[in-house]
Structures are given as C-alpha cells and as structure tokens.
C-alpha cells in the first residue's frame, strides 16, 4: 500500500518533514538508535500527537511500546524528501536579503544549491556573489531552461513581485519561494510558498509576551 498516494499530505505537515529529518540526523550522530514520540517531541518542540499524525501520512513507521528506529526514519524521510537528488535553484533579487541567501547558499544541504542569480540593476548584473554569477532578469527564461532549473527564490519587494514571478513562470519554473508577503497570480500548475518575515516576528513576539505573563 502506498500511503502517500492514498492520503493527501497537508501543507503544514509537509513543512515539518525537513525539520524531523534534521533532528533525526542529529540523534543519529549522537548514537541514538530508537526514540519514542514523546521524547522526539521534546527535541523538536512539536507535540507528540502531531508527530504521530504526521508520521501516519507516510505509513506505519513505529510500533506501540517500541517507538521508532532512528535509522529507518532517516531512510524513509530522506527518500520522501528526495534528498539524494541535487536541486538547482535560481535566485531573483540581489539586494541585502538576496546577498545573505547567496552567502549562506544552503550550506547544510548538499542537495540544494543556488547556481545562478538575477537582478535588474545594471550595477549588479555581471557580478559574482559568493561565486554565483548575477544575470539580467530579462535572460531568466533562457538560462533556467538551459540549466533545467525548476525552483526559484524571489526576494523582490512586493511592488515588483508580480513582474518578477511572471518572468520566473516564463522560464517554466513550477515552484517559487517568495519573500514578498503579497499574493501573486500564477498558473494553476505553479506553486508559490510565501515567507512573511514581519508576520513571523510578530507571531514570535506574541508568544514571547505570553511566556512573560
């Protein structure tokens, strides 16, 4: 039975899978071979009931009273997240945030790599930032098609986000991570994930205030 085909995995659950894998690898490095959901909850700060529900979307990964085998979970989540396949990423927008992403460039994930960057500023085009060349955004469709890139990160401000995304879509990119909180219009076969830093900070402050009461 292919559980993942029969159950549609919620987006919130899918977002936790890389978190689980990261902590599982940490546990593996510490020589831990087996773990209970309540213990894993303490490590990940995710409720144990949520962990068990998330795991159930993939299949029967553990046994009652026995827990979960760390190595098996790493194998299952690694296969599910396809971590052995190198994913080439294009970055659009080389301002402060874009440069920070290029300087970091997924150092903890060998299978994720920003290989090219794009901007509309003539003073930036042609530069190399942390070894990644910056191209004219007008050349985006041609370059990403040549490189077979299917994922793009946009750090373009909200007022320019729609234009940037339309250029990304021209390149047949189907997955976009946008740091502009305003929603953009894309074709039905394109997925956009939004990161709203202001919202994240406000949420963090909200919980911090609760802890102080």
From TrEMBL:
BP-aspect Gene Ontology terms = negative regulation of DNA-templated transcription; response to redox state
The segment(s) forming the CoA-binding domain are 82-183
What does the UniProt keyword field contain? Cytoplasm, DNA-binding, NAD, Repressor, Transcription, Transcription regulation
Residues at which NAD(+) binds: 93-98
Where does the record place it? Cytoplasm
- Entry GO CC: cytoplasm
Using the UniProt record, give the first listed, main subcellular location: cytoplasm
Q: How does it assemble?
A: Homodimer.
Q: Which NCBIfam families match?
A: PRK05472.1-3 (NF003989), PRK05472.1-5 (NF003991), PRK05472.2-3 (NF003994), PRK05472.2-4 (NF003995), PRK05472.2-5 (NF003996)
Name of protein: Redox-sensing transcriptional repressor Rex
Look up and give the organism this protein is from: Pilibacter termitis
């Amino acid at each position: 039975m292919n559980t993942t085909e029969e159950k549609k995995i919620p987006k919130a659950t899918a977002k936790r899978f890389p978190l689980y894998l990261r902590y599982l690898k940490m546990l593996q490095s510490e020589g831990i071979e087996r773990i209970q959901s309540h213990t894993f909850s303490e490590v990940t700060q995710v409720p144990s009931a949520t962990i068990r529900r998330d795991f159930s979307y993939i299949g029967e990964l553990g046994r009652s009273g026995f827990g979960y085998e760390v190595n098996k979970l790493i194998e299952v989540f690694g296969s599910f997240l396809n971590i052995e396949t190198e994913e080439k990423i294009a970055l659009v927008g080389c301002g402060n945030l874009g440069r920070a992403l290029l300087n970091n460039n997924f150092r903890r994930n060998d299978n994720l790599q920003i290989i090219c960057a794009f901007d509309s500023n003539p003073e930036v085009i042609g530069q190399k930032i942390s070894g990644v060349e910056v191209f004219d955004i007008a050349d985006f469709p041609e370059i990403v098609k040549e490189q077979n890139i299917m994922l793009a990160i946009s750090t373009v401000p909200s007022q320019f986000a729609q234009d940037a995304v339309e250029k990304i879509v021209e390149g047949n990119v189907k997955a976009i991570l946008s740091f502009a909180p305003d929603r953009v219009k894309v074709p039905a076969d394109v997925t956009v994930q939004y990161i709203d830093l202001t919202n994240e900070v406000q949420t963090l402050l909200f919980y911090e205030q609760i802890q102080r009461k």
